[in-house]
Amino acid sequence: MWYSRRSSLLLALVLCGASLSGQQPSIGSLSPAQQSAKPRARDLGVPFDGTPGPLNAITDVAGVEVGATTIIRGEGRQAVRTGVTVVLPRGKKWDPVFAGYYAGNGFGDLTGAAWVQEGGMLGGPVAITNTYSVGTVRDAVLAWFDDELKVSIPWHQPVVGETSDAGLNDIAGFHVKQEHVFAALNGARAGSVPEGNVGGGTGMVAHGFKGGTGTASRRVSGRYTLGVLVQANYGSREWLTIAGVPVGREITDLQRERGAPAPGGTREGSIIVVVATDAPLLPHQLARLARRVPMGIARVGGTASNGSGDIFIAFSTANPNSAKTAGGPVDLTMLPNGDESPFFDATIQAVEEAIVNALVAAETMTGYNGNKVYALPHDRLRAALAKYNRLVK
Question: Which DSSP category does 299 fall into?
Fold first, then answer.
């Protein structure tokens, strides 16, 4: 088959259809053995700076849960290659956290960002999907709190980010539905996070190779944890750099095979990055973290081109009193600004690794109108690293 079944694995509850078999959509779960079936960048000998947490994932930050729904069915002009990913800061409950926001280039959307900037708060999950499904996902998040959690929230602006999967997905078909968002939210959990062609990253392309979802984490100052999750759908092949090696110039074939893009067109690409930490950082400090994300992207060769939506949000799970909205003073803890530099380093390092993890995990995919995007070949990546004496053996 042109598409490996491993790419249709689920993070928790995932609706997916076999693209060629004609089977009906099914619901399944990802076992621990399946989670570790794919190599990650470090397994291939890619060197990175910093010390990761035990899972090397955003879920190393205690309390953070991630869920995803992957939708794969059909071919030709009926090819659906899309989904939704959700990140819940404190699990399945209404419990706002301090947050900060930054757009490296604003050719994209993150709903609810105005209140993150104004109020320094993130209420509910961060969801990521394709460009045309932002409204559906936003409405579904609101409905989930009412219908599933039975929580009455007087005011909520859901935070939903997007990147365009029009090259591989029938994006104008609006295939992400409320039930897909509910499945991702209800199935969200801590633990290992599947990467590559999953969730909102299913139909994404990065640096001319198959892109998608990636994650990584860092220990900071021996006490705190910082984790990131990326949806990588940006960048040109010639600038792809891994561990300082010009991989995009070493691997110049395996270019995208194009038929016609789905209605809605194509653009230069985008990347959404979610940064989480358990350190007691206040909103202005979290915005500073978000502003360091582009430095990690630049390490891999991203340039924030005119048509790229490079949008980032950072939140802290510390300070349980951050949810209070009125009623007088509250007791908070914070690190002084002078202690934040190690977190800047950790953000840059984790973003770089998460993007490479997405590229390593992604698999070759054929989608809308026969458009085909190749996976980054692991053997040739290792050969390029070895050529420049960067391969960890």
Answer: H
